[in-house]
User: Fold these one by one.
Assistant:
Number 1:
Amino acid sequence: MQTDTAATKLQLPLAAHARNPGMTLDLDWVASVQANTSAIERRAATIGGRRSVKKDFQAAWLLKAISVIDLTTLSGDDTAGRVQRLCAKARQPVQQSMLDALGVPGLTVGAVCVYHDMVETAVRALEGSGIPVAAVSTGFPAGLSPYHLRIAEIGESVRAGAKEIDIVISRRHVLTGNWQALYDEMRDMRAACGDAHVKAILATGELGTLRNVARASLICMMAGADFIKTSTGKEGVNATLPVTLTMIRCIRDYEARTGFKVGYKPAGGISKAKDALTYLCLMKDELGHPWLQPDLFRFGASSLLGDIERQLEHFLTGHYSAANRHAMG
Amino acid sequence: MNKPTVREIFDSMAYGPAPEGSAEVLSWIANHQGRFGHWIDGAFTKPGETFETRNPATGAVLAEVTQGTRADLDAAVAAARRAQPKWARLTGHQRAKYLYALARLVQKQSRLFAVLETMDNGKPIRESRDIDIPLVARHFYYHAGLAQLMASEQPGMEPLGVCGAVIPWNFPLLMLAWKVASALAAGNTVVLKPAEYTPLTALLFAEISREAGLPKGVLNVVTGDGQTGAGLVAHDGVNKIAFTGSTSVGKKIREATAGTGKALTLELGGKSPYIVFDDADMDSAIEGLVDAIWFNQGQVCCAGSRLLVQEGVADRFHSKLKRRMDGLRMGDPLDKCIDVGAIVDPVQLATIKTMVEGCTDGQVYHAACAVPAGCFYPPTLITGLSAASTLMQEEIFGPVLVSMTFRTPEEAVALANNTRYGLAATVWTENVNLALDIAPKLKAGVVWVNATNLFDAAAGFGGVRESGFGREGGWEGLLAYLKPTRQTKSLAVPKTAAEPDDLVVDGLDRTAKLFIGGKQARPDGGYSKAIVSPRGKLLGHVGLGNRKDIRNAVEAAHAAKGWAKTTAHNRAQILFFIAENLSARAAEFAARIKDQTGKPGEDEVDASIQRLFSYAAWADKFDGAVKSVPLRGVAIAMNEARGVIAALCPDEAPLLGLISAMAPAIAMGNTCVLVPSETAPLSACDLYQVLETSDLPAGVVNIVTGSHTELAKPLAGHLDVDAMWSFSAQPLSAMIERESAGNLKRTWVNHGRARGWYGAEGEGREFLRQATDVKTVWVPYGE
C-alpha cells in the first residue's frame, strides 16, 4: 500500500483547488445576509444526534481528524525546545505501531501553527516532512498594532518560511459596519501573503452576532481569503457549532456564486474526539467531501490530538486508554 | 460487499452502519411469547384472536396482538367505570404522584421505549430517542403539575368519567401520553385503543404503569383494528372520545357520537402551509423543512407540507432545497445515522405512490439519496403547482413537499388559508413586523415563526376548520377533560297558545322583518307567523325565515369579518352602548316580555343590561397567555374568535337568552347569526332598533326568526359557519352534531338540558371559551 506518499500529498495546502482570487466588494450581498440565531442553534444542537460513526468508521474518521489538525502552540513561554517537541509530534502524531495497525503508517497532522518568532525553528524541525508551518500574524491576537507593521509582519513570516498565514481582522470594522475598510484590509493582507495561503481569523466571539459573523465571512472571501477561521483561541468564546454553521453556509454560497472553494478552520475549544467527529459530520453534510481534506478544512487545536490517541488505542485494544501511554506534543 | 478497511474509509469518509441494539426489545417480546392480550383492569388478558404487527423496515413480524371484540371493550369500559369514582376522589396531589411516577418510569425505560417504537413504526431511532420519548416524559411531568394544581386553579369543574382514546400510528406513545396524561390528571379513567400498525409501546406502557402503582382499571388498553376503534366510539359506557387521526374518520366519529352527550375532541389532518418570505434565512428555512416534511417520513398531521415561497427567491430556494434533500440519509430506522426511515405500512406506501404518480402538473424531484428496497419512499419535492392542483389540497401523509409561489404578504395569507384544513402554519422572515402581522391571520391552531414542529406539554396543540377541535397541552388541554359541576334539569318544550279567532292587532300593524346585514329584510319565503300571548291575544307577526335567509345571514356575517380586527376596547364600547340604549327603553322591553310570557319583564331586562356590561367588561379581559415552554422565545396562546357563530337562542328567556348568546360571541370578535326564541321572538325584533342605534357594524349580528327545527339544519350543515350553539327547547342536539360533521364546526348543544340564565350558569368563561379557539404562536428569538 502506497500510503506514505498518498498521505503526504494530502497535507499540501490547497493542492486540489484553484485559489480564491476574491471579487469586487458586493455590499448588496453583504446587506442581504441573514442568520437566524435560534434556528442555527437548533440545527447545531441536533447534528450530534443525527450523525453517528462507529467502530472502523470512527477510527478512520478520527485519523482524518488528525490529518487536518493545525497543531498549535501560541504561548508567551514558547521556546525553541517546546516548538521542536511539537513538530516531532506533528510528524508522528500517533505511535507508529498503532498507525501500522490502522493501515496509515505515514499519517501526519495538517500543519504546525506558531508565532512569527518560532517559524524558522518549526520550518527546520519539519524539514522533509511536507508539513507546512502556519504563522499567526498581523498583531495577533488583538490586531491593533500599527497597520504598516501588521502588513510587514506577514512578509517577515513568509520570508521565514511560513506557507500559511493566519491573520486577524480588525473587529472594530465589523462592529462599526465599515465593510469597505474590512475589505481593503483583507485585500492588503492577502497581497502581502504572496504565494502563502491566508486564513482570516474573524474572532467570532467578539463580533456580537451571527449576522456579523456571516457578513465578515463574506467580505473576507470577497477580498481573497483562502480560509476563514473562527478564533484566535484567546477570545472568551472560540469555535462553536452555531458559528461554524453560519460560516460554512457562507462558504457554500460563495462557491455557488463564484465557483471558488474557500476553506474553513474552527479554532479553540475543540478538545474531544467526539467534538471533532461532530465537526466532520457537519462539514460533510453541509459542504461535502472536499471539505474533509486538509486543503479545505483544519482544526486549530492543541489538546484534541491526545484525546483522539486514547480513542484510537481503545479501538485497537478494546480497553480504555491513559494519557501517559501516548507521547506528549 | 467487502468490509472496507480503515484506510479506505479514511479516503472515502463514508458514513458506516451505526445500529442501535434491539436485543432488549426482542427479549421483552419473547417474555410474552410473542403474543399479547389486552391490558384490562391492571393485567394482561389471555390473547384471543390475534393479528400480526410488523417492523415496516424489514417486514419481519414483531408480535401478535389481540383483535379487540365487543366483549373485550365491555370488560375494559366496565373496569374503567369501576375505577373512576375512586380515582376522581383522590386529591390532586395523589394523582400527581402517580403521574410523576409514570414520567419517571418512561425516563427509566427510555431506550426500551424508543427502540420498540422505532421497530414497530419505522421512524428513525433519533426521532423516537430524542423527540418522541422525551416529549412523553415531559407530558407526564407537566400533567403531574396540572393534577397538583387543578383543585385550586379550576374550581367548579369535575372529570367527565370514562374516556375512550383512539390514537394513530405516527406517534404511538406520544399520542398515548397526550390522551392519557390529561385524562388521568383531570380524574378520568381511560380505555385506549392504539393503532393497528403500532400497538406495542402502548402495551409496554400499560405494563410499566403497574410499577407506578396505578390502580387497576384506571388505564386500559384494548388493541385491534378500526372496528375495535369504532366499537369504543359507539360504546354506551364512555363519556368522552378523544381521537387523533384522519379527517375522514374524524367526521365519522362526529356523526357516530352525535346526540349521545359524549364529549369529543378531534385532532385530524392538515395541509399546513410553510411560508418563506424573501428576507428569510434561507438555509435555516430549508433546515426547517427537513424537520417539517421529512420528519417521521412526513407522516405528521401538522407537517409543513405546502411550501409557499416568495416568487423572487423561489428558484434559489428550490435549488438549495434540492441539494439539501440529496444529503438526507434513508435506511434502517434503527441506524443512528439515518434521517428518513420506513413508511409505516405497504398500504401507506402504495397510497403515497399513487398520489404522486397521479400528479400531472408540476415538476417532481426525488432526492438523490439511496432508497432501500421495501417500505421506503424518497424525500420528494413537487414544484410549479398551483392552488388548483390536487396535491396542493389533499393531504399526502408522506415525505412529499408541494410548492408554489406568492408575490405579497397578503397573497401568502390568502394562499395559506385556501384550504379546508387549519392545523399548523410556519412563517419564515427576519422581519418581526411581518411575522407578527401574519401569524394571527393564518387559519391554524399553531403557528411557528422561524421554526417548525415545536411541541411542548405547556403549549396547546390542535386545529381549526377540518383539522378538528379541542386542544392538547396546557390548561386549555386539561379543560377538554373537565366539565362544570352542575345539576341540570330537563328543558320542557314551551307550549304555544292557539291563534285567537280575532286576528286584529291593537294600533298600527307592526310586522317584524328579519335583521340581516344591518338592514331589516323581508323573509325570502314571504311568510309570516302570528305571535300570540299565553292568554291567546295576538301580539304581532314575525317573518318566517327559511334556508335562503340563513344563506343571506351567513354571507352578511362573513362580510362583517372586519369586526374581529377591531380593538377589544372598541367592541367593549359598543356593548356598553347597546346596554345604554336598551336601558333607555327598558320599560317597553319589559312590557313586551310580559306580553309574550305572561310574567313581569323588568328583571329580565335588568339582567340583560347587566349581561351586556359583563361582556363589555370581558371583551378586553379574556386574556391569552405566554406559555413557559423550554425554549428561548415565547409561545403565545391567543384567544381567537371562531368566526361566524350560529345560535338557536333559548325559548324561555326571550331577551336575556338572546343577549347571553350574542354578547360573548361579539365580545370576542365573532359575528353571529341568531335564531331567537321560537315562541317569544318579538323581544329580538324590538332589539333591531337598539342594535341599529348602537354603532354596531352591519352584519356583526344577524337575526332570523322562525322555526328552530327548520332553521337548525341549514345552519348546522352550512360549510361556512364555524360554530353552532343550541339552547333550543326543541330536540335538535343530535341533528346539529351530526350535520356539523360537514365542516367539523364546533358545536355546543344542550342535549335537552336547561340552563339557568340569570345566574353564573348564564355567563362567563364557559361562554367565552365556546366563542374562541386558542392559537399558539411560537416565536423563538435571539440574535
Note: Residues 1-14 of chain A have pLDDT under 50 and may be disordered.
Number 2:
Amino acid sequence: MRWLVRQSAWAQCLVFIGGFLLVVGVIDVAFAQPFGMTRPAPSPEYGGVTGWILAKQAEFYRMLSGAIRAAKADGSAAWTLLGISFTYGIFHAAGPGHGKAVISSYLVANDETWRRGIVLSFASAALQAVTAVAVVGIGAVLLGATAKAMGNTVRVIEIVSYALIMLIGLRLLWVKGRAFIASLRPARSNAKASADHHDHAHGHDHDHAHGHVHGPACTHHGHHHHGHTHGHSHDHCDEASAWSHGHGPEPAELTGRHWWKRGLAAIVAVGLRPCSGAVIVLVFALAQGLFWIGVASTFVMALGTAITVAIIATVAVGARGLAGRMAQAKPGTGMILVRGLETAAAGVLVVFGALLLTGYIVSERLMGF
Amino acid sequence: MNPIRFVLAAVFALAFAGAAQAHPHVWVTMKTDLVYGADGTVTGVRHAWSFDDMFSAFATQGLEAKVKGEFTRDELKPLAKVNVESLKEYDFFTYATADGKKTELTDPLPEYWLDYKDQVLTLNFTLPFKTPVKAKELKVEVYDPSIFVDFAFNKEQPVQLVGAPAQCKLETELPREMTMAEGQALSRIPADQVNTSMMWGAQFANKILVKCP
C-alpha cells in the first residue's frame, strides 16, 4: 500500500485503471465462451472458488424441482422450497440480467454511495422477479403461450434492457470523460477548483462527520451541472462513512430526486430482464398446478440475489472510496486517478451494453433449444 | 482492514462476479451409440438425450395434446424440429477427433423425434460423419462450453458401439462429481489467493474413446 502511495498520480491512475480493466477482462473471458462455440472449443476450465460456486448454484437449482414436487404432495414442503429458493438466489446472482457487474460499474462511474448501491440492488432484483412473474403469468397462464413464444418475449425485453445499459454508459462516458480530460489540463478552472476543494477536504480527512466530505473524490453530476458548487444537501459524497461511521440512512439522501432519476434508469436496465431460472421454475410450478408457490419462490430467490449483488456493490463502492481517499492525499493531480477510474467504469458499461446487444456476450439463453 | 487486501478482495469479488455468469439451466442425461458401417468405419453418432423434468415442463408449456399431460411423437414433432434446428448453432455440442484430427459431423439424419415419458422429454437423433471414419483412436466429446446445458452420460448404459469390429475397445469418461471434501477445501481458500492446483473444469466433458489397433 505504502508503495502505491509513494507513486506519482499518473502511476496510481494507471495501476487503478489497469486493475479495473483486468477485472473486466476476466469477466469478458468468462462471457466470451458461448462465442467460442463455433470453433472446436476446449473444455471449460473453472477453478477454485468459482467452480465451487458454480457447482453449488447448480445443486440448489436442481433441488428446486424436487421441492416443488414435494410441495404438491405436502403443503409444508413449501417452506423447504422457499429456503432452497433463497439459497439458490444467493449463489446464483449471476448473469448480466442480475447485473452485478453492471451495477458495480454504474456505482463506480457515478460515485454513488454504498446505501444507494444496496437500494439499487434490491430494487432491480425485485423488478426482475416482477418481470419473470409477468412473463409467465400473462404468457403461460392467461394466453397459454408456448416456451418459444415466452423466449421471444424475453428476447425483446433483453434488447431493450441491453440498449438501456449502453445508453447509461454513454451518458456517463460523456460526463466523466470530459471531466477526465479536464483534469488532465491543470490550467483549466476545473482542476483549479478541485485543488481548492482539496484544502477543504483535508481538514476532515480522518475524523469527518458524515455528509461533510467534499473532497476531490466527490464527483457527482452536481459538480458538472451546478458550476462546481458544493452545497448539495442531499447529494454528497459519503463513501468514507461506509468504512467507519455506520449509521442509518438519511431520509433526504434516499429520497433525493437527483439520484432517483439516475437510479431508476439503472434499476430498469438491470432488472427488466427476467432470470431464465425463475421463468423455468415458474412454468414448472404452473405445470404442477402450484403457480402461486412458484411466485413466492421467485420473490424469495430475488431476495437472495439482491443480498449477493448488494454485497458486491458495497465492495465496489468501497474500492472506489479507497481510490478517492488516495486521491485526496495527492492534491490536484490525484484527481486524474479518480476521473480516470470513473471514465473507465463508464466505458465498461458501454462495452458491456454493446457486447450484450450484439450477442457477443450471451447472458443466459432461455431457449437453449 | 488492510487496504491492499481489501482491493484484492474487491478485484476478486468482481472477477468471480463475471466468471460465475453461467450455470446449467438444463440437464441432459445421454445415451450415445457409435454406429459402424459394414466396412468397419464409423458412420455416425446416435444420441438419445433426456432432459430434466423442469426443462421438459418448460419446453412442453402451451403445446396442444389430446390427453392432458401426455404428448405423442406427432404432437411433439414441431418441438423436435425447433430443438434440432437450434442445436445446429451449437454444433450439437458434439466434438469428434480421429487420431487427433478434428472430424466433421454433418446435420442430423431426417429421422429424429421426441418422446415424452414420466414427464421427461427425450430427443433422439443421429449425426452422420461427413465421411465415414476409420481411425486407430476416435474421440467423441459432448459438452456445452458455456455450461448452460449440463451433459452427463446415463450411468447404466452410457455408450454402445453398434456393429464395431471385434478388436475395437471402448472407454468412456464421465464427468466426476465434486466430493464434499473438495468443496469444503475450496471454500477455505482465502479470497485473495487464487488456487490453480484444483482445476476441475475438464470434468464437465463426457468423453468417448474408441481404440482400434
Note: The CA atoms of residues 175 and 225 of chain A lie 10 Å apart.
